[in-house]
TrEMBL record:
It comes from the Bacteria. This is SIMPL domain-containing protein. InterPro entries: 26kDa_periplasmic_antigen, SIMPL/DUF541. Pfam families: SIMPL. Gene3D superfamilies: Protein of unknown function (DUF541), domain 1 (3.30.110.170), Protein of unknown function (DUF541), domain 2 (3.30.70.2970).
Length: 229
């Protein structure tokens, strides 16, 4: 009997406590912060693809072209840590109509360009040395952490300002924040850049620009729950 009384007392206290919490005046708002920056570096995924009827010859030709590409990269004084082989494959492809097997070899290199002034020269050199596929180009900022921090602060300021706007009409003020939820998603948009063409110089030998880096937007989103005074 005593256990039942104690249990009922605990349940009553818990319910009472829950009711008290629910009665605290609160407001929940969201905030968004955006920072637009000009990218200062790019990551290029470039592939050499070769095909033929002899697996050994196909692989050798692919290796030769990759060797030329790596020599170009070293010649441009890119740091060893800024390029790496990302993917290597050699696959048989059977033609059921001709009843013959051919082979397809690919090697993909990921290159980080930390000086975008080298972008056009590098892209031209890659094509000349045997790269026949540019899989992806992603532009980014070397100060990403700094810009993300700034975006988070702007999101919090907007949330606070929004809450103040709402409660000012009621003659109240916002107090301490009870909860803060970070709803941000990491996203690296790819700015518009010129489609890669054959990197040939015109008759006047004038340099050709193929890059429009644009801007990237770093966004932070928060949800904040304030107590009302």
């Amino acid at each position: 009997m005593k256990r039942v009384i104690v249990l009922m007392s605990v349940m009553f206290l818990t319910l009472s406590y829950g009711q008290e919490i629910k009665q605290v005046p609160q407001i929940t708002v969201s905030g968004e912060g955006k920072v637009k920056v000009i990218p200062d570096e790019a990551t290029i995924s470039a592939t050499v693809e070769t095909k033929g009827n002899n697996a050994k010859e196909v692989k050798q030709k692919n290796d030769q072209q990759i060797d030329a590409v790596l020599k170009l990269i070293k010649k441009m004084n890119l740091a060893p840590a800024d390029y790496r082989t990302q993917r290597v494959s050699l696959n048989p492809q059977y033609d059921y109509e001709k009843k013959k097997t051919s082979y397809n070899a690919t090697q993909t290199i990921e290159i980080i360009v930390r000086d975008l002034n080298k972008y056009d020269e590098l892209m031209e050199g890659l094509v000349n040395q045997g790269i026949n596929r540019i899989d992806n180009v992603v532009f980014q900022s070397s100060k990403l952490a700094q810009h993300e921090s700034e975006a988070r602060k702007l999101a919090m300021k907007q949330a606070k300002h929004k809450a103040e706007d709402y409660v000012s009409v009621l003659g109240q003020k916002i107090g301490k924040a009870m909860t803060i939820s970070d709803n941000s998603q990491t996203y690296y948009p790819q700015p518009v850049y010129a489609t890669m063409r054959k990197m040939e110089m015109s008759d006047s030998a004038a340099p050709r620009e193929t890059l429009a880096a644009g801007e990237i937007t770093i966004t932070a989103n928060v949800t904040v729950n304030f107590i009302l005074d």
